[in-house]
Amino acid sequence: MGVMMQTFYWDCPREDKREFQWWKYINEQVPALAKAGFTSLWLPPAHKAGNISGPSMGYDPYDFYDLGEFDQKGGIPTWFGTRKELESLIANAHTHKMSVIADIVINHNNGADEQQVNPITGQSRWTLFHPKSGKFPRDWESFHPNLYESWDEMTFGDMPDLSHRNPYVYSELLKLARWLIEEIGFDGFRYDFVKGYGAYTIQAFQEYRYMRDGQPLKPYGVAEFWDSASNTLNWVNLANFSNSNPVDAFDFPLREMLKSLCDQYGFSLRNFTSWDTVLKHQPQTTVTFVENHDLRDEGRPIANDKLLAYSYILTHEGYPCIFWKDYFNYGLALDGSPNGIAALVAAHERYAAGGTSVLYLSDDLYIMQRGGYGDQPGLIYVLNNRGDAWQGEWVTTQWRNTSFQPVAWWGSHDRSRPEDQHIGSDGRGRFFAAPRGYAIYTPR
Q1: Selecting from 3.20.20.80, 1.10.260.40, 1.10.10.10, 3.30.70.1150, what CATH number does the domain 4-351 have?
Q2: How far is CA 284 from CA 66, 220, 248, 281, 382, in A?
Protein backbone atom coordinates (compact mmCIF):
# COMPACT_ATOMS: atom_id res chain seq x y z
CA MET A 1 0.00 0.00 0.00
CA GLY A 2 2.84 2.37 0.76
CA VAL A 3 3.53 4.97 3.45
CA MET A 4 2.44 8.62 3.36
CA MET A 5 4.33 11.55 4.85
CA GLN A 6 2.39 14.59 6.04
CA THR A 7 5.00 17.17 5.06
CA PHE A 8 3.97 20.00 7.39
CA TYR A 9 2.77 21.02 10.82
CA TRP A 10 1.05 24.17 12.08
CA ASP A 11 3.17 27.29 11.47
CA CYS A 12 6.01 25.11 10.20
CA PRO A 13 7.61 27.80 7.98
CA ARG A 14 8.00 30.08 10.98
CA GLU A 15 9.01 27.44 13.51
CA ASP A 16 11.64 25.97 11.18
CA LYS A 17 12.80 29.43 10.08
CA ARG A 18 11.95 28.63 6.47
CA GLU A 19 9.27 31.19 5.70
CA PHE A 20 8.48 31.23 1.96
CA GLN A 21 11.04 28.40 1.53
CA TRP A 22 9.04 25.34 2.63
CA TRP A 23 8.70 23.80 -0.85
CA LYS A 24 12.48 24.00 -1.22
CA TYR A 25 12.95 22.39 2.19
CA ILE A 26 10.68 19.45 1.39
CA ASN A 27 12.40 19.10 -1.98
CA GLU A 28 15.75 18.70 -0.24
CA GLN A 29 14.36 15.78 1.79
CA VAL A 30 12.79 13.90 -1.15
CA PRO A 31 15.73 11.57 -1.95
CA ALA A 32 16.14 10.51 1.68
CA LEU A 33 12.41 10.00 2.17
CA ALA A 34 12.18 7.88 -0.97
CA LYS A 35 15.17 5.82 0.16
CA ALA A 36 13.55 5.31 3.58
CA GLY A 37 10.49 3.81 1.87
CA PHE A 38 7.96 6.64 1.76
CA THR A 39 5.73 6.45 -1.29
CA SER A 40 3.64 9.63 -1.11
CA LEU A 41 3.85 13.22 0.14
CA TRP A 42 0.82 15.07 1.47
CA LEU A 43 1.50 18.78 0.99
CA PRO A 44 -0.16 21.69 2.82
CA PRO A 45 -2.74 23.80 0.90
CA ALA A 46 -0.81 25.30 -2.00
CA HIS A 47 -3.15 28.15 -3.03
CA LYS A 48 -2.88 31.81 -2.02
CA ALA A 49 -4.67 32.27 1.28
CA GLY A 50 -6.63 35.20 2.67
CA ASN A 51 -3.74 35.94 5.07
CA ILE A 52 -5.91 38.26 7.16
CA SER A 53 -3.51 38.30 10.12
CA GLY A 54 -0.33 37.58 8.21
CA PRO A 55 0.88 34.47 6.33
CA SER A 56 -1.30 31.44 6.99
CA MET A 57 -1.25 27.68 6.48
CA GLY A 58 -3.71 27.94 3.58
CA TYR A 59 -6.89 26.77 5.24
CA ASP A 60 -8.42 30.17 4.42
CA PRO A 61 -8.37 30.06 0.58
CA TYR A 62 -8.58 33.23 -1.45
CA ASP A 63 -7.26 32.52 -4.99
CA PHE A 64 -7.25 28.81 -5.84
CA TYR A 65 -5.16 29.43 -8.96
CA ASP A 66 -2.45 31.50 -7.32
CA LEU A 67 0.21 29.02 -6.19
CA GLY A 68 2.72 31.77 -5.63
CA GLU A 69 2.93 33.81 -8.84
CA PHE A 70 0.61 36.83 -8.38
CA ASP A 71 1.31 39.82 -6.16
CA GLN A 72 -1.68 39.80 -3.81
CA LYS A 73 -2.51 39.13 -0.17
CA GLY A 74 0.89 40.20 1.09
CA GLY A 75 3.19 39.30 -1.78
CA ILE A 76 3.92 36.87 -4.60
CA PRO A 77 4.87 33.61 -2.84
CA THR A 78 2.61 31.72 -0.50
CA TRP A 79 4.03 31.04 2.97
CA PHE A 80 5.52 27.89 1.43
CA GLY A 81 7.11 29.41 -1.68
CA THR A 82 6.46 30.02 -5.37
CA ARG A 83 4.65 28.04 -8.03
CA LYS A 84 7.94 27.18 -9.75
CA GLU A 85 9.33 25.80 -6.49
CA LEU A 86 6.19 23.74 -5.97
CA GLU A 87 6.37 22.33 -9.49
CA SER A 88 10.05 21.51 -8.96
CA LEU A 89 9.16 19.64 -5.77
CA ILE A 90 6.42 17.65 -7.52
CA ALA A 91 8.72 16.77 -10.42
CA ASN A 92 11.46 15.62 -8.04
CA ALA A 93 9.00 13.48 -6.07
CA HIS A 94 7.84 11.85 -9.31
CA THR A 95 11.45 11.17 -10.31
CA HIS A 96 11.80 9.32 -7.00
CA LYS A 97 8.59 7.37 -7.66
CA MET A 98 6.59 9.19 -5.01
CA SER A 99 3.06 10.50 -5.51
CA VAL A 100 2.03 13.97 -4.31
CA ILE A 101 -1.28 14.70 -2.60
CA ALA A 102 -2.84 18.17 -2.63
CA ASP A 103 -4.64 19.40 0.48
CA ILE A 104 -7.77 20.83 -1.13
CA VAL A 105 -9.91 23.25 0.89
CA ILE A 106 -13.26 23.72 -0.86
CA ASN A 107 -15.69 24.30 1.99
CA HIS A 108 -15.02 27.94 2.86
CA ASN A 109 -13.19 31.02 1.55
CA ASN A 110 -11.58 34.05 3.15
CA GLY A 111 -10.08 37.43 2.32
CA ALA A 112 -12.79 38.77 -0.01
CA ASP A 113 -12.19 42.09 -1.71
CA GLU A 114 -15.55 43.65 -0.91
CA GLN A 115 -18.65 43.16 1.19
CA GLN A 116 -22.03 42.43 -0.38
CA VAL A 117 -25.56 42.40 0.94
CA ASN A 118 -27.11 38.98 0.56
CA PRO A 119 -30.66 39.76 -0.64
CA ILE A 120 -31.98 36.58 0.96
CA THR A 121 -30.82 37.41 4.48
CA GLY A 122 -30.35 41.17 4.15
CA GLN A 123 -26.96 40.79 5.83
CA SER A 124 -23.66 42.15 4.59
CA ARG A 125 -20.79 39.68 4.24
CA TRP A 126 -17.36 39.49 2.63
CA THR A 127 -18.31 37.54 -0.49
CA LEU A 128 -16.97 39.44 -3.53
CA PHE A 129 -13.72 37.90 -4.79
CA HIS A 130 -11.67 39.34 -7.67
CA PRO A 131 -8.59 37.08 -7.68
CA LYS A 132 -5.64 38.28 -9.77
CA SER A 133 -5.40 34.91 -11.48
CA GLY A 134 -8.68 35.88 -13.16
CA LYS A 135 -10.06 32.41 -12.52
CA PHE A 136 -13.05 31.45 -10.38
CA PRO A 137 -14.26 34.94 -9.38
CA ARG A 138 -17.05 34.75 -6.80
CA ASP A 139 -19.93 36.83 -5.49
CA TRP A 140 -22.72 36.29 -2.96
CA GLU A 141 -24.44 33.69 -5.17
CA SER A 142 -21.39 31.43 -4.84
CA PHE A 143 -21.96 31.10 -1.10
CA HIS A 144 -24.62 30.02 1.38
CA PRO A 145 -27.45 30.89 1.37
CA ASN A 146 -28.42 31.48 -2.25
CA LEU A 147 -31.08 30.53 -4.77
CA TYR A 148 -29.75 26.97 -4.98
CA GLU A 149 -29.25 26.11 -1.35
CA SER A 150 -30.74 27.28 1.93
CA TRP A 151 -29.09 24.89 4.39
CA ASP A 152 -25.38 24.91 5.13
CA GLU A 153 -24.20 21.55 6.49
CA MET A 154 -21.43 22.87 8.74
CA THR A 155 -19.62 26.19 9.04
CA PHE A 156 -15.96 26.82 9.72
CA GLY A 157 -15.52 29.96 11.76
CA ASP A 158 -17.13 33.02 10.19
CA MET A 159 -15.81 32.35 6.69
CA PRO A 160 -18.46 32.16 3.93
CA ASP A 161 -19.08 28.61 2.70
CA LEU A 162 -19.11 27.76 -0.99
CA SER A 163 -22.44 26.46 -2.29
CA HIS A 164 -21.57 23.35 -4.29
CA ARG A 165 -25.13 23.04 -5.60
CA ASN A 166 -24.70 26.25 -7.53
CA PRO A 167 -23.85 24.91 -11.03
CA TYR A 168 -21.24 27.63 -11.52
CA VAL A 169 -19.41 26.73 -8.31
CA TYR A 170 -19.65 23.00 -8.99
CA SER A 171 -18.21 23.33 -12.48
CA GLU A 172 -15.45 25.66 -11.30
CA LEU A 173 -14.41 23.17 -8.62
CA LEU A 174 -14.15 20.42 -11.22
CA LYS A 175 -12.04 22.71 -13.42
CA LEU A 176 -9.80 23.32 -10.41
CA ALA A 177 -9.40 19.61 -9.78
CA ARG A 178 -8.51 19.02 -13.41
CA TRP A 179 -5.94 21.84 -13.38
CA LEU A 180 -4.26 20.54 -10.22
CA ILE A 181 -3.94 17.02 -11.63
CA GLU A 182 -3.29 17.63 -15.30
CA GLU A 183 -1.25 20.85 -15.29
CA ILE A 184 0.34 21.18 -11.86
CA GLY A 185 1.05 17.48 -11.47
CA PHE A 186 -0.67 16.44 -8.24
CA ASP A 187 -1.67 12.77 -8.02
CA GLY A 188 -4.54 13.00 -5.57
CA PHE A 189 -6.36 14.97 -2.92
CA ARG A 190 -6.68 15.21 0.83
CA TYR A 191 -10.19 16.61 1.24
CA ASP A 192 -10.36 19.10 4.09
CA PHE A 193 -13.45 19.33 6.32
CA VAL A 194 -15.75 17.13 4.21
CA LYS A 195 -18.53 17.47 6.77
CA GLY A 196 -19.15 20.91 5.29
CA TYR A 197 -20.46 19.79 1.90
CA GLY A 198 -22.13 16.90 0.13
CA ALA A 199 -20.32 13.67 -0.66
CA TYR A 200 -21.35 14.08 -4.29
CA THR A 201 -18.52 16.59 -4.74
CA ILE A 202 -16.00 13.97 -3.62
CA GLN A 203 -17.54 11.45 -6.01
CA ALA A 204 -17.16 13.94 -8.86
CA PHE A 205 -13.52 14.69 -8.02
CA GLN A 206 -12.69 10.99 -7.75
CA GLU A 207 -14.54 9.89 -10.88
CA TYR A 208 -13.52 12.73 -13.19
CA ARG A 209 -11.71 11.38 -16.26
CA TYR A 210 -8.31 13.03 -15.88
CA MET A 211 -5.65 12.84 -18.60
CA ARG A 212 -1.98 13.63 -18.04
CA ASP A 213 0.73 13.28 -20.66
CA GLY A 214 -1.78 11.53 -22.89
CA GLN A 215 -2.59 8.87 -20.30
CA PRO A 216 -5.69 8.46 -18.11
CA LEU A 217 -5.11 9.02 -14.39
CA LYS A 218 -7.24 8.09 -11.38
CA PRO A 219 -6.43 10.34 -8.42
CA TYR A 220 -5.95 9.03 -4.91
CA GLY A 221 -8.32 10.57 -2.34
CA VAL A 222 -8.53 10.67 1.45
CA ALA A 223 -11.08 12.61 3.48
CA GLU A 224 -10.92 14.35 6.82
CA PHE A 225 -14.14 13.18 8.47
CA TRP A 226 -13.53 13.69 12.19
CA ASP A 227 -16.12 11.54 13.94
CA SER A 228 -16.94 8.13 15.40
CA ALA A 229 -16.15 4.95 13.50
CA SER A 230 -19.79 4.30 12.62
CA ASN A 231 -20.40 7.83 11.34
CA THR A 232 -17.14 7.78 9.37
CA LEU A 233 -18.07 4.45 7.79
CA ASN A 234 -21.52 5.78 6.89
CA TRP A 235 -19.90 8.73 5.13
CA VAL A 236 -17.32 6.56 3.34
CA ASN A 237 -19.99 4.18 2.11
CA LEU A 238 -22.11 7.11 0.90
CA ALA A 239 -19.15 8.71 -0.89
CA ASN A 240 -18.14 5.40 -2.46
CA PHE A 241 -21.59 4.29 -3.55
CA SER A 242 -21.48 3.84 -7.34
CA ASN A 243 -17.93 5.21 -7.28
CA SER A 244 -15.33 3.41 -9.39
CA ASN A 245 -12.47 5.23 -7.64
CA PRO A 246 -13.21 4.93 -3.89
CA VAL A 247 -12.06 7.54 -1.40
CA ASP A 248 -10.30 6.70 1.89
CA ALA A 249 -10.81 8.32 5.29
CA PHE A 250 -8.52 9.09 8.22
CA ASP A 251 -9.19 6.88 11.24
CA PHE A 252 -9.66 9.35 14.11
CA PRO A 253 -11.12 6.71 16.49
CA LEU A 254 -7.99 4.57 16.04
CA ARG A 255 -5.86 7.58 16.86
CA GLU A 256 -7.78 8.00 20.12
CA MET A 257 -7.06 4.37 20.95
CA LEU A 258 -3.36 4.90 20.25
CA LYS A 259 -3.31 8.01 22.43
CA SER A 260 -4.79 5.94 25.25
CA LEU A 261 -2.13 3.27 24.70
CA CYS A 262 0.66 5.84 24.98
CA ASP A 263 -0.71 8.20 27.63
CA GLN A 264 -3.13 6.24 29.82
CA TYR A 265 -1.66 4.30 32.74
CA GLY A 266 -2.92 0.72 32.87
CA PHE A 267 -4.36 0.73 29.35
CA SER A 268 -5.44 -2.83 28.54
CA LEU A 269 -4.24 -4.23 25.22
CA ARG A 270 -7.51 -6.13 25.03
CA ASN A 271 -8.88 -2.83 23.72
CA PHE A 272 -7.09 -3.61 20.46
CA THR A 273 -9.84 -6.05 19.51
CA SER A 274 -12.82 -4.28 21.13
CA TRP A 275 -12.20 -0.59 20.33
CA ASP A 276 -14.47 0.60 17.54
CA THR A 277 -12.22 1.88 14.76
CA VAL A 278 -12.61 2.38 11.03
CA LEU A 279 -9.64 0.06 10.49
CA LYS A 280 -11.42 -2.74 12.29
CA HIS A 281 -14.36 -2.65 9.89
CA GLN A 282 -12.89 -1.49 6.58
CA PRO A 283 -9.08 -1.51 6.35
CA GLN A 284 -9.11 -1.14 2.56
CA THR A 285 -10.36 2.46 2.80
CA THR A 286 -8.56 3.53 5.99
CA VAL A 287 -5.62 5.88 6.50
CA THR A 288 -4.06 5.34 9.91
CA PHE A 289 -2.07 8.03 11.71
CA VAL A 290 -0.58 8.92 15.07
CA GLU A 291 -0.44 12.71 14.92
CA ASN A 292 -1.44 15.54 12.59
CA HIS A 293 -1.39 19.34 12.47
CA ASP A 294 -4.75 19.68 14.23
CA LEU A 295 -4.05 17.25 17.07
CA ARG A 296 -0.35 17.81 17.71
CA ASP A 297 -0.47 21.56 17.46
CA GLU A 298 -3.96 22.30 18.72
CA GLY A 299 -3.83 20.75 22.17
CA ARG A 300 -4.28 16.97 21.81
CA PRO A 301 -0.76 15.61 21.31
CA ILE A 302 0.44 12.19 22.40
CA ALA A 303 2.85 12.91 25.23
CA ASN A 304 4.49 9.56 25.99
CA ASP A 305 6.16 6.66 24.16
CA LYS A 306 4.81 7.66 20.75
CA LEU A 307 6.84 4.98 18.98
CA LEU A 308 4.42 2.40 20.38
CA ALA A 309 1.68 4.01 18.31
CA TYR A 310 3.85 4.18 15.20
CA SER A 311 4.78 0.53 15.58
CA TYR A 312 1.07 -0.32 15.56
CA ILE A 313 0.12 1.55 12.39
CA LEU A 314 3.23 0.41 10.50
CA THR A 315 2.60 -3.28 11.17
CA HIS A 316 -1.17 -3.44 10.78
CA GLU A 317 -3.40 -3.03 7.76
CA GLY A 318 -4.48 0.36 6.44
CA TYR A 319 -2.46 3.11 4.77
CA PRO A 320 -0.13 4.65 7.41
CA CYS A 321 0.60 8.38 7.48
CA ILE A 322 3.66 9.76 9.31
CA PHE A 323 3.78 13.25 10.82
CA TRP A 324 6.70 15.42 9.66
CA LYS A 325 7.24 17.02 13.07
CA ASP A 326 7.61 13.62 14.73
CA TYR A 327 9.98 12.31 12.07
CA PHE A 328 12.23 15.36 11.78
CA ASN A 329 11.75 17.88 14.60
CA TYR A 330 11.24 15.39 17.44
CA GLY A 331 13.91 13.02 16.19
CA LEU A 332 11.78 9.88 16.02
CA ALA A 333 13.09 8.83 12.59
CA LEU A 334 16.34 7.46 14.08
CA ASP A 335 17.46 6.62 10.57
CA GLY A 336 20.20 4.01 10.50
CA SER A 337 19.01 2.32 13.70
CA PRO A 338 16.35 -0.35 14.35
CA ASN A 339 14.71 1.83 17.02
CA GLY A 340 12.75 4.51 15.17
CA ILE A 341 10.17 5.33 12.53
CA ALA A 342 12.59 4.78 9.64
CA ALA A 343 13.06 1.12 10.60
CA LEU A 344 9.30 0.73 10.99
CA VAL A 345 8.71 2.18 7.51
CA ALA A 346 11.26 -0.23 6.05
CA ALA A 347 9.59 -3.15 7.82
CA HIS A 348 6.19 -2.05 6.53
CA GLU A 349 7.35 -1.85 2.92
CA ARG A 350 9.29 -5.12 2.94
CA TYR A 351 7.14 -7.38 5.11
CA ALA A 352 3.73 -5.99 6.18
CA ALA A 353 1.22 -7.60 3.83
CA GLY A 354 -1.62 -10.07 3.99
CA GLY A 355 -4.28 -10.59 6.61
CA THR A 356 -3.86 -9.91 10.32
CA SER A 357 -4.24 -12.70 12.89
CA VAL A 358 -4.06 -12.15 16.65
CA LEU A 359 -1.93 -14.94 18.13
CA TYR A 360 -1.92 -13.87 21.80
CA LEU A 361 -3.75 -11.20 23.77
CA SER A 362 -3.73 -10.21 27.43
CA ASP A 363 -3.93 -6.94 29.30
CA ASP A 364 -0.24 -6.22 28.76
CA LEU A 365 0.95 -8.47 25.90
CA TYR A 366 -0.17 -8.54 22.28
CA ILE A 367 1.24 -10.77 19.54
CA MET A 368 -0.06 -10.82 15.96
CA GLN A 369 1.04 -12.02 12.55
CA ARG A 370 0.65 -10.59 9.06
CA GLY A 371 0.26 -13.48 6.65
CA GLY A 372 2.27 -12.02 3.78
CA TYR A 373 1.39 -11.47 0.13
CA GLY A 374 3.42 -11.49 -3.07
CA ASP A 375 7.03 -10.55 -2.40
CA GLN A 376 6.23 -9.38 1.15
CA PRO A 377 6.58 -12.49 3.36
CA GLY A 378 4.73 -11.24 6.43
CA LEU A 379 5.84 -10.59 10.01
CA ILE A 380 5.22 -11.22 13.69
CA TYR A 381 4.61 -8.18 15.90
CA VAL A 382 4.93 -8.13 19.69
CA LEU A 383 3.82 -5.26 21.93
CA ASN A 384 4.64 -5.39 25.64
CA ASN A 385 2.78 -2.88 27.80
CA ARG A 386 4.35 -4.08 31.02
CA GLY A 387 6.79 -1.49 32.29
CA ASP A 388 9.19 -3.58 34.35
CA ALA A 389 10.08 -6.76 32.45
CA TRP A 390 10.57 -8.37 29.08
CA GLN A 391 7.60 -10.48 28.05
CA GLY A 392 7.05 -13.25 25.55
CA GLU A 393 4.69 -16.13 24.90
CA TRP A 394 4.46 -19.32 22.89
CA VAL A 395 2.17 -18.86 19.90
CA THR A 396 1.09 -20.98 16.95
CA THR A 397 1.89 -19.32 13.65
CA GLN A 398 1.30 -20.09 9.98
CA TRP A 399 5.00 -20.90 9.44
CA ARG A 400 6.83 -24.21 9.78
CA ASN A 401 10.53 -24.83 10.39
CA THR A 402 11.37 -21.16 9.93
CA SER A 403 13.89 -18.94 11.67
CA PHE A 404 12.88 -15.38 12.54
CA GLN A 405 15.00 -12.32 13.21
CA PRO A 406 14.05 -8.94 14.70
CA VAL A 407 14.21 -6.09 12.16
CA ALA A 408 12.78 -3.27 14.30
CA TRP A 409 12.45 -2.93 18.06
CA TRP A 410 12.26 -0.38 20.86
CA GLY A 411 11.68 -0.18 24.59
CA SER A 412 11.14 2.88 26.74
CA HIS A 413 14.16 1.94 28.90
CA ASP A 414 15.78 -1.02 27.14
CA ARG A 415 16.85 -0.93 23.47
CA SER A 416 18.54 -4.35 23.56
CA ARG A 417 18.15 -6.50 20.45
CA PRO A 418 15.63 -9.32 20.93
CA GLU A 419 17.04 -12.77 20.27
CA ASP A 420 16.36 -14.62 17.04
CA GLN A 421 13.59 -17.19 17.33
CA HIS A 422 12.82 -20.47 15.56
CA ILE A 423 9.44 -21.94 14.66
CA GLY A 424 9.35 -25.71 14.68
CA SER A 425 7.46 -28.23 12.61
CA ASP A 426 4.36 -27.67 14.77
CA GLY A 427 4.25 -23.96 13.89
CA ARG A 428 4.99 -22.87 17.43
CA GLY A 429 7.53 -20.28 18.53
CA ARG A 430 8.11 -17.85 21.36
CA PHE A 431 8.44 -14.13 20.71
CA PHE A 432 9.46 -11.32 23.07
CA ALA A 433 9.49 -7.53 23.43
CA ALA A 434 11.23 -5.21 25.87
CA PRO A 435 9.38 -3.51 28.75
CA ARG A 436 6.95 -0.92 27.43
CA GLY A 437 8.21 -1.75 23.97
CA TYR A 438 7.71 -3.61 20.71
CA ALA A 439 9.54 -5.98 18.37
CA ILE A 440 8.95 -6.92 14.75
CA TYR A 441 10.22 -10.33 13.67
CA THR A 442 10.46 -11.44 10.06
CA PRO A 443 11.31 -14.78 8.43
CA ARG A 444 14.90 -15.17 7.22
Answers
A1: 3.20.20.80
A2: 35, 13, 8, 9, 23
